[in-house]
Amino acid sequence: MTINKEATNEQAILETAERLFLEKGFAMTSTTEIAKEVGCNQAMVHYYFRTKDKLFEAIFEKKIKMFVGIFLQTDEENLPFLQKLQLKIERHFDILQENPRLPFLFFNELTTHPERMDVLKQRLQEFPKTVFHRLNSELKIEIEKGSIRPIETIDLILSIVSLNVILFLACPIVKKITGMSDDDFQIMLQRRKKENVIMIINSLRPLEILNEKCIK
Amino acid sequence: MTINKEATNEQAILETAERLFLEKGFAMTSTTEIAKEVGCNQAMVHYYFRTKDKLFEAIFEKKIKMFVGIFLQTDEENLPFLQKLQLKIERHFDILQENPRLPFLFFNELTTHPERMDVLKQRLQEFPKTVFHRLNSELKIEIEKGSIRPIETIDLILSIVSLNVILFLACPIVKKITGMSDDDFQIMLQRRKKENVIMIINSLRPLEILNEKCIK
DNA sequence: CAAAAAACTAATAGAGCTATTAAATAGATT
DNA sequence: AATCTATTTAATAGCTCTATTAGTTTTTTG
Description:
Chain A is mainly α. Chain A contains eleven helices and no strands. The first copy, chain A, has helices spanning about 1-25, 30-40, 40-50, 50-70, 80-100, 100-110, 115-125, 125-145, 155-180, 180-205, 210-215.
């Protein structure tokens, strides 16, 4: 019990802090509040983590590692391009669903504390150089074959991230404005996951007619 | 000069506050800082706006009005559906380009201060009932004609907003990670505006082959 | 020009927050 | 049991922030 408890207090602070930071962001969460929720003295938070900032960075870095790690998974699949793409989109969506508040935290903290981007950049060093280039070369092949329309790799990535992320970012807003229940929102999420795949893959089809008819 | 200056001080506070709130959010901006930037006494901020919260809401409501107002513009256009859609997407993107920090402010403040959503909801009352339904009925007609694939109206709206918004939200992150200059970013924005239109419109084409080949 | 109103400021109350310190308690070790 | 180490706490220094108050300066107005 005691050995457990010793490990438990530091862990409890970490977990509570994570929850509160994700809920309300760094600025709106105080060490006092964290301690109150854990049920310990406020000084304990500083005993284990020295500063609020260090506590945050411990959590932030962990989340970045987790997030990036999954993308660095080697694709064991030897599938056609579009099927691989579909799996990637779905996997990305799944990660978000498991960490629905992560986009908020990332955008919010990286915007209000640009210096935190250094951790991110350092952590992401190899990310563009592997994931990006892998996707890039596969994409170029498909475009040359004419099986998908011309598109910049960065645009495709941005579009996938953007479509997948929006509902998690807008979740409180959508719920409030539509008066939707949690269950309804979950249903919407499921539909949205499929819709995003269709959206992306359909949007990659060669243009032809479109050029004449719609885009000036 | 004096008459000008009197009107000027309140105005200066409003403008400076707007800039700082957009830059760093509500929590990270103090009335002391606003006053310092304006070059006036900190009590002035409270003289004109009583509380920091009221000052924020004055700005927030103005921004919402502006943002919603543009969408409520009657579409004088009597164009084919897809061309109208293209114009809407482009107009939406333009508004964002003129207010690049607005998405950050909206997502950030509505998430950390859910009570602010009441202002938004009240302000948006007729928005869904006009814009949404107008798009909805036009969309259903096109779907029945078979000229575009089946899609929920809310999904289309979310996709447009999401694709248009992402770069403005991710701006600091993208700049930092890619080391891109401001000019390069502007170029990217221009490309992205076109890409989003192509993306959306292309993604609305009927499915057929896709169903068999790619989506299980 | 005198009185009234408006604009402005210095000072500060009062609250909350981070971080530290010094002391107390509990657990492990010899 | 005595000592040492790790954990925990109370107290508080020191800071920053919001908001108010009471008084001063400036502008307007009769």
